[in-house]
Amino acid sequence: MRVERGFRAVGAYVRRAPGTYVWLGVLFVTTVALHHMSPQFEQEFLRRRSTNLHELSRRPVRVLFASAMWIEGGHWVPYSALYTVFHAQAERWLGTLRWLGVCVAAHVLATLVSEGALWWAIRDGSAPPSAADTLDIGVSYALAGVVGVLVYRIAAPWRYGYAGLALAVYGVPLAVGHTYTDLGHFTALLIGFGCRPLAAGRGKAWNPKETLRALRG
């Protein structure tokens, strides 16, 4: 009976975040497909679906969509955990359409900011022209945006600690590495912070103190 109740609980959780788990299912299929490609073919295949400057200048809408359907490196399991912890929580709280709006805004705008910065660097000579073909694919910008908007799911003062941790997770790599991908991640987080209007009217914020009190009986 406990096992049956557990399966029912998992099923109910998944049904309340359909977008998250459909997306995760697509990523599972595409990840399996990548594992059946040769390394050389895989790189060329992903490059044609990459949001690098070359592909964005030719078919921007196609690559912005396609790049969010693949995971570079083929590590699906960690993303299944991250999707459950962040995406599913955000979708259950915001509703599918608002959650999707955060994902699209973070993915598209952070891509444009990071690639725009790269274009400027190539133009002024601080980056080589070959950087226009750099592989840029994956779902991490949308994830960073969702991490950002979830700050409004948490009651004060806990939300300030969460916000500080998120800023450190995405800000320290940018300060240390100065890569365009790190710039994209940090930008996506700020976009998530900026999605506060989407969180309006979504119910009482979660208070960890109340949860701990309930667990203690």
Protein model, in words:
- The protein is an all-alpha fold.
- The chain has twelve helices and no strands.
- The longest helix has 28 residues, at 96-123.
- The mean pLDDT is 92.
What topology emerges from the helices and strands here?
Elements: H1 2-15, H2 18-35, H3 39-47, H4 53-58, H5 60-66, H6 76-94, H7 96-123, H8 140-149, H9 158-177, H10 180-193, H11 196-199, H12 208-215
Helix and strand content put the structural class at: mainly alpha
Overall CATH architecture: Up-down Bundle
Which band does the percent of strand residues land in? under 5%
Order of helices and strands: HHHHHHHHHHHH
The shape, in one word, is globular
The termini sit apart by 24 Å
The radius of gyration over CA amounts to: 19 Å
CATH topology: Rhomboid-like fold
Number of helices: 12
By CATH, the superfamily comes out as Rhomboid-like
Total domain units: 1
Roughly how much helix do the residues carry, as a percent range?
over 70%
What is the residue-averaged pLDDT? 92
Give the CATH level 1 class: Mainly Alpha
Q: Biggest sheet: strands, sense, closure?
A: none
Low-pLDDT runs: none
- How many strands in all? 0
